[in-house]
Amino acid sequence: MIYEHTYEMVTDDLFVRLPRMAPGCEVFLKIEGLNPAGSVKLKTALSLVEDAEHRGVLTPGARVIESSSGNLGIALSSICATKGYAFTCVVDPNTNATSMDHMRALGAEVVVVDTVDANGGFLQSRIAHIRRRVEADPAMVWLNQYANPANPHAHYAQTASTLLKELQHIDYLFVGAGSTGTFVGCSRYLREFSPETRIVAVDAVGSVIFGAPPGPRLIPGIGASRIPELFEPGLADDVVLVAEEDAVRECRLLARTHGLLVGGSTGSVLAAIRRYADGFPAGSRIAAISPDLGERYLGTVYNDAWVKEHLGALA
Ligand SMILES: Cc1ncc(COP(=O)(O)O)c(C=O)c1O
Fold first, then answer.
1. Which residues does a 6 A CB cutoff place in the pocket of ligand 1?
2. Residue 315 binned pLDDT confidence (cut-offs 50, 70, 90)
3. What is the pLDDT of residues 246-295, one digit of tens each?
4. I need a labelling partner for 247 at 20 to 30 A (CA). Which of 42, 140, 260, 306 fits?
5. Sign (positive/negative) of CA torsion 291, 292, 293, 296?
6. Residue with CA at minimum distance from ligand 1 atom 12
């Protein structure tokens, strides 16, 4: 297959069965990490950029600015390099060093904001930094993944429609929340075209999205220290909050049992399925979204010394 641009190489139809996750049920993991940007955020990034182009706010030679925990930044770096836009990515200390190097190699400016916000995270500080930059240079275009309908639209139009097309019938969908674009887009689509699907939102302990108390978090991508504007709480049938040690344990177990390295947020989703495992009716078809793969986390999730230092001995 020949593509004209790297950003078109979206692999939306890859699923792997996880036969040992929930006995008596079928579990399918949707693999989003096998594209040139390495994550589900390639679809989000392309949707945000094309929407800004269609609205006429993004014109040749413009500078794009966006806040990211890493993956959206990599995807936007790649798209902006191809389309000829300058790009500034505002990240925080939880962003992997290799992700920052990846963005810089693609020509992006990377700004690390390390001021802890009132909820123990960095998102409010990252956004405050962007507001200051845009005020100083009104020509900068902030795509704003947290409030932009083009974010969930990517997952309504692609991620969820592919899920239903490939799996035909879905009893449960387990989906993580960060900007909540994947959750909102997939939930809206399934409410419309598969109303029998139960949607289980997965968030991190310490994230405030679903109203839980704030706290420090280390795994990038999942959770937020500020509720995104595009979040719609009524879309979830249930919410599971996962502690980081449980997410890491699942990642490491999957590696040893299924030969697959996944990112920390996939571990959270798997931990949520395991918590549910006894409650699934026999024969249930369960889908889970894996936003990225694990190579980016070799120095953290899969590194014994890092795990021991930050999470202690895993049971
Ligand atoms: C690894 C990872 N998992 C989960 C998410 C959450 O996806 P969303 O922002 O669509 O809620 C992200 C978002 O950046 C991510 O990078």
1. 39, 41, 69, 71-72, 176-183, 221-222, 263, 265, 291-292
2. low
3. 999 999 999 999 999 999 999 999 999 999 988 999 999 999 999 999 99
4. 42
5. negative
6. 221
Q: Give the position, in ligand 1's atom list, of the atom nearest the Cα of 70.
A: 16
pLDDT score recorded for residue 116: 92
Distance in Å, CA 43 to ligand 1 centroid: 11
Q: What is the mean pLDDT of the chain?
A: 96
Task: Return the SS3 of 244.
Answer: helix
Q: Which atom of ligand 1 is nearest to the CA of 177?
A: 11
In tens, the pLDDT along 80-124 reads: 999 999 999 999 998 999 999 999 999 999 999 999 998 888 999
Atom 1, ligand 1: which residue's CA is nearest?
A: 221
Mutate to test the pocket of ligand 1, among 126, 143, 222 (most ligand atoms within 8 A of CB): 222
Q: Report pLDDT digits (tens) over 37-81.
A: 999 999 999 999 999 999 999 999 899 999 999 999 999 999 999
Please give the structure tokens belonging to residue 205: 């302990």
Burial pattern 270-305, b for ≥16 Cβ within 10 A else e, equals bbbbbebeeebeeebbbbbbbbbbbebbeebbbeee
> DSSP string covering 163-195, please?
HHHHHS--SEEEEE-SSSHHHHHHHHHHHHH-T
Query: Token pair for residue 95?
Result: 């962003």
